Structure formats: structure tokens, C-alpha cells
Amino acid sequence: MLRTHDCGSLTTGHIGETVTLNGWVQTRRDLGGVLFIDLRDRSGIVQIVFNPAYSGDALAIADKVRSEYVLSVTGKVVKRDEETINPNLATGEIEVHITEIEVLNTAKTPPFFVEDGIEVDESLRLKYRYLDLRRPEMQKTLMLRSKASKIFRDFLDENGFVDVETPILTKSSPEGARDYLVPSRVHSGEFFALPQSPQLYKQLLMVSGLERYYQIARCFRDEDLRADRQPEFTQVDIETSFLDRDTLLNMMEQLMVKLFKETIGVELETPFQRITYQEAMGKYGSDKPDLRFGLELVEMNDIVASSGVKVFASVIEKGGEVKCLNAKGCGTWSRKDIDDLGPYAARYGAKGLAWIQVKDGEFKGPIVKFFTEQEIEAVRERTGAEDGDLLLFSADNKKVVADVLGALRLKIGRDLGLIDDNVFKFAWVTDFPLLSYDEEAKRYVAEHHPFTRPNDEDLELFDTDPLKMRAQAYDIVLNGYEVGGGSMRIYKREVQEKMFDALGMTPELAREKFGYLLDAFEYGTPPHGGIAFGLDRLVMLLAGRSNLRETIAFPKTASATDLLMDAPSPVDPSQLDQLHIKLAKKPEDNKVKA
Amino acid sequence: MLRTHDCGSLTTGHIGETVTLNGWVQTRRDLGGVLFIDLRDRSGIVQIVFNPAYSGDALAIADKVRSEYVLSVTGKVVKRDEETINPNLATGEIEVHITEIEVLNTAKTPPFFVEDGIEVDESLRLKYRYLDLRRPEMQKTLMLRSKASKIFRDFLDENGFVDVETPILTKSSPEGARDYLVPSRVHSGEFFALPQSPQLYKQLLMVSGLERYYQIARCFRDEDLRADRQPEFTQVDIETSFLDRDTLLNMMEQLMVKLFKETIGVELETPFQRITYQEAMGKYGSDKPDLRFGLELVEMNDIVASSGVKVFASVIEKGGEVKCLNAKGCGTWSRKDIDDLGPYAARYGAKGLAWIQVKDGEFKGPIVKFFTEQEIEAVRERTGAEDGDLLLFSADNKKVVADVLGALRLKIGRDLGLIDDNVFKFAWVTDFPLLSYDEEAKRYVAEHHPFTRPNDEDLELFDTDPLKMRAQAYDIVLNGYEVGGGSMRIYKREVQEKMFDALGMTPELAREKFGYLLDAFEYGTPPHGGIAFGLDRLVMLLAGRSNLRETIAFPKTASATDLLMDAPSPVDPSQLDQLHIKLAKKPEDNKVKA
């Protein structure tokens, strides 16, 4: 019996119709010989009723069904009695009086309830993912993800972007994160690598004159996993030729507008705020600031450099900085509340946390006595301190101050309820540094990647002050999450060579690793640039979830394991022989099951 | 200067407008101090003109440009003089008189011409793929592929299919082709495998109640490559619950109708012909018959079993068969033409090839004398032999007869010009055998895959005559190519266990390899089935190409090498240490560069 309707689609408009439904038994209640079953399919739930008055043989069959049995049923849609109407159910005004039933399959009792909001160990959910995904909230997230992908594709297609698939079996790159490797059977001793992104392929497509490319691309990083990382993840990968940065960013804003409107009905305001990396770090202590609330950090160096607070003066003397966060309204916190911030700040590198409470117009706290009256007034003016405020000071090198006060700003913003979960506040962070210095490797490394174009006016700094160089790179930030990023790319061979040189690559190594790219740059490469959006994270934010695994049908655990299929797993030795590799040790010697 | 128009979009409707164009120099001609450049972008070509009369400084700059330079130019669209109109160019009625030029990048002379129809060694094209893809025919194919993907997605989305991404890092499977393996860094001695298809994941999504799934999925097979294989390929992967076979196939026909109409403007007729595997093998000697022409094979056993042709009689006695192909109109072939068929047939296993020519109403040829008059009449009637026909006979076991006459049918159909390249003839091949017997492994193997549902009425044959069992499997065939295939799946644990048992898997091994699937079948699995289309091959046929590599942006060679990036390649020994593997030999010992 093929279904005629979806369970969740039935309304009072269907009353009197005979319908066939397919679905799973959600619940089953026997009320004095009349059987009520909530039947579930992906569209929702409807109540079906088996009654001796009209169900005939079907009742006896239905009597044997249990939770998660799969049924095909036929019956008539009927209005419920007033007193049995269920206002919590979309189909709550009707029920279906069944005359025919077929049990398509039986079911054992599942290891957890197939319903939203269960509190079950995640590893059990992952092992039985096929049951976990039956839960409506998981199905809704998967459908939201599918819809989001479709919206990306529709928008990009309408704007002339060509969907091109690039290889998964590709070449190991010396820059970037750790690669997943794939031994070659044909070429003994050689390996493919799974791509960390299609970066070089998409640039080569621009050299090919394709002009506008996109791909919803699987990417791979063999990194130690954090809560918001997966070994394989998905990015919406975009590249274009001949566009300038602002034209591209404006187009991407329209893409986000469409995405948020058509998935969750939110109207985004454009243009998105644009903020330089310098400003973001200065005001928010973060390159992915949550702009849903204020609590901006305030620079204090000029005011406190000559104050009596020894630690301030000495930090400044050593080239560090002192900044203040005015925790509005936290002036009433107890000494213990304030002290509790110390260990939190320490996690971000703080060696201590100086503070001032403002009470009855006066500054209070251990450090106040070291300030002059003028200094206090200057602090008051700079921070806008008022009665009931709490001023928090961090004094250290730039990075630690940003980390500490950036983290405190978020914590206090949350604690004070300043963050509205229904607000989606996008921003572009621009003008990132081109390079940073890796103390361990004793060389410069690319902040974005080695193919990022420097700001035109900074090019001469390659030879004089590389750390001062800014990149034509941009991140798109939403509510404190980086949801995408990109850059204009280098498209002249001599600039790319300068960049490789700055990264400490000899011309020979650059040639060995990226010869094809340097060659390509000599055959008429157009100016180009692009962006990639993290699809997993965007879907997470759209769905209001807090974990990437909730947005992925079959995710891996934090130890990169697929608990459902039990992968990775040992393989037959003959498979390794064919691949010309051996295990370094016997598996049992160093198996690290986690 | 941002472009205002695409090169190929300019028409007489733009005359008088000032436009800015970006593109590549296709050709450059200097006619008495006036410079004509064909400027190319992905939309097409337009002629731009630099003339001292209006170009000012731009002329001197333009004078230095060469093929494949990247330009940005601004000028006025002007109607060409009547005598210079180029009817071969979409923009041939106009030209652009340039007043401003910027050279965005220079170019060396490319290793081959950037134009259609070049005859260049394919390895050179693959090494410089970024130039090869600049050629209009390659760009058109990539754009066609993008469009085809979009049409698949639009259709499936409209029909309620949810796009779900399944893992690339998954588990090695004991059935099927050879897996690509990925060593795990976290779990020493263990490996992921790249998926040969998302088969089990999509079935688990049906267990999850997702009801309709699709994915344009990358798949991997580490097989020795033939011309029409790639180590990674793309399939449009589809699965649905609660539908019966015919409803699914009808829906897929509508999908093909939309695809062919919207890409190449071809109106397909539905319903597609449906033909059983038995009939396809019988009439066409192939399970992927080219139905654009007739030349059906004819069974001869009953007629020739008692004839004087010894080889016929003895083959039939041994359980083999004799079949005939009436090569209409080839009766005039010379003896040499006919003899030349012998070595061709031998490639498909023929030990010899008997034949009869029909001339002036009479049968001629070496075997005719062994036939009685009645037998000749019976042959004439059965084969419809007429004057000018050539009857070709194959006598051997069933497989060889099918291979030989199937191949001859295709060759003769081509030679006789019976095949219309503009016709797209789809068919469904159904009722495949469930199992075949692998002589080497001495066990049954699944013809489709081990999850294919047997025909309901054949279930009892598991215990009596497994080779007689037919599967609820279907291939979709187009012009002699298999462009897709699928099946209804087993959804009851006991049937799946019977199937594993028939394949010689012990319950323990089945449990170890597919325990999660057997478990899943116990928790309310709906009836389900699906199909997968080979996207590469479909695009190849849509684009009228004869090689899968022409449809893939960055394909691999027949020895599974990426010539552009030079992958696979040796990796740093420290990378192998981290993955707990060693090379079986030093790379230089057995490097097999091809």
C-alpha cells in the first residue's frame, strides 16, 4: 500500500478522505479495547485509531505492534471530539480511523527513546546513529542543512558560478595542517593526500578562465580534535576572477541574507559591519568578536604608565599594554564573585586581575590608592565608569591582554544577559596581518595561507618589516564564530616567489612543491580571490545547536572514530602488501582505543 | 576597471554603448597600424580594435600584448563595416573601439593553442590542465556538468529528497572492489577506507526514517584502470523508503526527461523500454544493449541441433548454444571482409565464426552443404534472411556466444551506419540474477551487491537453486552504456543473514563486518530501495564526448596519476612515523612511474 499522505500533513481539510499512511509507531495506548497509536514519519505525527466498531481484523494485528514498528495503514480522516483535541500537535484536531493495516517490519525496544531532548550518553547515540537520527530534532537539522546547501547553490548558480568538483586524491602540501595520507598501490612508496581545502585547484580554475567557481567541498585535517572540529568537514568554496574585494563581499552579504531569510526567516541588515583586525583585537580582544553587545576594551597605557601601580608601569615599560574592561553594573559583586574571575582569567594567561569598583561616586579596591586624583578622573572619563560599575584591568603583552579581556568580556556579557540569542550579528574582519613569526620554527608563517595577496601599499615591506604587512584577507564573523574567510590571491609569479621566500622556502623547495602554480602564473593568470564558508558551523548556528556533531549525519568522535561502523579498523595484511607498506608495530602493541 | 559586459554577450543592441571587458588575448593582427585583437572570456570572443584615430596611448600598450595576456579594456561598441562582418562569431556584427587598456597580466607562449579540436598528446594537456581548460570545448563541458548537477538537485529537491553528506573516511568492506586505505594516526595499526559508494550509509538513513535521500557523492575504487574508469568518480546517489520499484523507476524517468531537455534540448519519450536481463542477453548479447538499432540475435539450437554441422551439434550436446546474427545487407562483403571478422570475434572468445551469404535467393558458404533443405528454410524464416544478407553464427557456451555476437552486432551496426548519434535511447534492464558463481573463490558472489533484495517469489531458491534467483535490481542503459543502476534492498534481518550465508560468510564474519547493519534491521527498518547514476558518464554522453577524462576538471591518468600536481608523491618519513607505518621497500627499489 503506497502512502497517499504524509502523517504530519493531515488537517481538518482532509476530513472524510480515505488515506494511506506509512510510518513508525511512536506510542501506543489501549483505552478499553480501543487502540490509539501515534504514527510518525518525517513530516510529523498523527493519531490513528483502531476500534472494534470499524477496524475489523486490523485491530487484532494492531494489538501486537510495539514502539518503532513500521506500519502501512489505511483509514478515514475524522474530526476529533472537542475534548480530545491536542493543541500541541499540528494534526491535533483530527485522527484517522483505520480499516486496514500491514506490519512492514517489527522492532526491538530501542536503547533510548526516539524523541527530542533525550539525555543519553553521546557515544550511545553515535553507536545507534540510525535511531538517533529518527528523532525529530535531528531530522529537522539534516533537512535544514540540505536546504541551506540548496540555497547556497541556487544563489551561486544565479550569479554565474560554475560547480566544479576537484580531486579528493591529491598531493601532500608542506604548509598547513597535518594531511591524511593514502598509499598508492600503483606507485610504490608514494602517497596521495586528502585535501585540506581545494585552494590550489580553485586558483588553477581561475587560471583556466572559468571566472566564477564554487563547490560544496569535503575537506580533511588530521588534527587533534576539539569540540568544534571534525576530521572531515564541509566548506562552501568560492572563487572569482576580475572582481574587487568589496564587490565580492557585498555579493556574499546578499548570499547570507538569502540563506537566513529562507531557512529561519531572519532578515539580516546589510551592509555588514566592517572592522579591521587591529580594531577587533583592540576593542574586543578577538578576531571573531561577538558584536551583539558592547563592553568594549579600553586602552589605558597613556593614563597609567606613570601611575603608582608598579605592575602597570613595568609592563608598559617592557612594551606591553594595560587595558580595561568596564563590566557595567557589576560593581555590586561581592569580593568572592570578583575573586572567582581570577582563575577564569588565568586560563587565558592572566597572571593577575586588577579591579576597581565604583560605589557612591567613588573608586574602591586595592589599587585605587596608587592612583592620583587626575588619574582617577582620566580613568573615569575613558571608561565611562559610573556608580555600580566594575573596572577590570589586564596588564601583559598584547596577546595575553586580548585573550584575557576578550574572554572576560564574553563571560560577563553572557552572565549579565547582554547576549540576545535571537540576534544574528554579522561582521567582516579585514586587514589581517600577512605573516606571523613562529618562535618554534624560527621563521615567518602565513597567517591566512601562502597564496594571500598583501595589501598593494605594503609590498615593499617584504624587504624591511614583513610583520607589518597586511593581507587582503577577510573573515566573516557571526555572533563570535568565524563562519567563513578568504582573501584576494597573489596572481603574479614574482609576488608569489617573494612570499615563498619570506616563508623560508628555498627557490628549489618552492619549485618542488608548487612548481605547477608558479608555472601557471606565467600563462596569463587573472586577478582573483575568493572565500570559503564553514557549512557545518553555519548550520549549527542556524539550527541553534552548540555542537558541530549535531549537524553531521555520521560524525566522528573527538578521537576520530566512527562508533557506528567501528572505523578505523584493522585490515587484512594482504591489503597492506598490495600498498607496499607495513605496520611500524604490531597493532596490539600500541593500540590506543579512545 | 570592473567589467560591465561579457565578451560573448555583445550584440548590435549594444551599439553606441561604452563597455568595459576583461579577458584573454586569443589572436592579434596588425593591419597597417590598426590593431585587431580577439578578446576571449568564458562567454565567447569579441573583436576589439586599437586605432590611432581614437585609442590614444592605449595603442602603444596594446602593441606589446601577445596571446593569452589578460586585459581590461574600455571602449565603444560599433557596428562593423558590411564587408568585415564575421558570420561565424556570435558577436561578429560588432566590434569595440578601445580607448583605455590595462594589462592585468602577461603570458608566455602556451605549449599548445588555446582553441577547440587541438591534436595534442593528452599527457601534455593534463600537465597544463589549467591551459587545456581554457579551451572553449572544455569550458562548455564543465559548465554542462555543473548544469546537469543542478538539474539533478532541483528535481530531487522538488520531490522531497534530502541532500545528506556521508563520510569519506569510512570502513573497509570485505565485498566489492579494492579499497583505498587511510592509516589512522590516533589508532595505531588501524585504517579508514574511502567509500566505494555510500551504499550502507544511505540504507542506514532509510532506517533513520529520512525516507528520501540523495547525494552527489564521490566514490573510490582502487582498480586497474580502463579508459572509462577513474580512481575517484561521482555518482548521483538516491534512496527512498516506502516506494515500490515501478514508482521509483517512473520518477527517475522524469528526472532523465528534465535532464536531457534542460541541458541539450532533447525530448525523451517515456516510458523507457523495460527489458529483462534474460531478454537483453538473448536478443543483444549484452546487459547494456544499444537499442538505437535492431540486428537482434536469433536462437538456433532447435534448428541446428541435428544438422550436419558437427560443431553446432556438439556444442548443443554439451549444454552450449548456437545463435545467429543476420547482418542485413552484408551479403555482398568479400571473402576477405568476412574473414576479417574472425580475429575481431576471437577477442571476445570466439574459436571460429560460421557464416552464410544469401545471394540470388540462395544460401552460400562453407557450412551450407551440411544443412538439409528444411533446415535452410527454417533458418531463413527464423532470421528473416533475404538477398544480400550475411548470417553469422556463434556456437559456444552462453557467455561466449553473447559476448561474440553482442560485439559483432555493435561493430556491424556502426559499420553499416545504423547508429544515429542524435538519438538517445534509454532502457531499463531488470531481473538480474541475484548471484553468480566465482570459480576462483569457489563460492557465490553477489551480482549487484549483498544488500539487493531477491524477487519475493524466488526466496525459497536460497536453499535449492541459488543461481536461479533473480534480484529486484535494475540498470538504466543509454545507447549501450550503463548510466545507472540500483535495486530494492533487503530490509529483514533473516533475509540479509540468508544472503550473507549464501555468500559463504560465517555468522561470525557477517557479524564482524556488518553487525551494525544486522542490528539496524531489528529496530524497524522500512522497505527501501534506490539507484545511483554515474554522473561522469552521463555528462560524457550529454556532451557527445567519448572519454570520461574530458568531463572531469582534474582527472587522473590510466596509471592513477595526477600529472598536474604530480601526485601521488613521496612524503616526509616523519609523516609515516606519525601514522605508525613503514614502507615495505625503499621507494627507489620499486618505483613504477608510469
From TrEMBL, chains A, B:
InterPro entries: Aa-tRNA-synt_II, aa-tRNA-synth_II, aa-tRNA-synth_II/BPL/LPL, Asp-tRNA-ligase_1, Asp-tRNA-ligase_1_N, Asp/Asn-tRNA-synth_IIb, AspRS_core, GAD-like_sf. It catalyses: tRNA(Asp) + L-aspartate + ATP = L-aspartyl-tRNA(Asp) + AMP + diphosphate. It is found in: Cytoplasm. One of its GO terms (cellular component) is cytoplasm. Its EC number is 6.1.1.12. Homodimer. Belongs to the class-II aminoacyl-tRNA synthetase family. Type 1 subfamily. This is Aspartate--tRNA ligase. The gene is aspS.
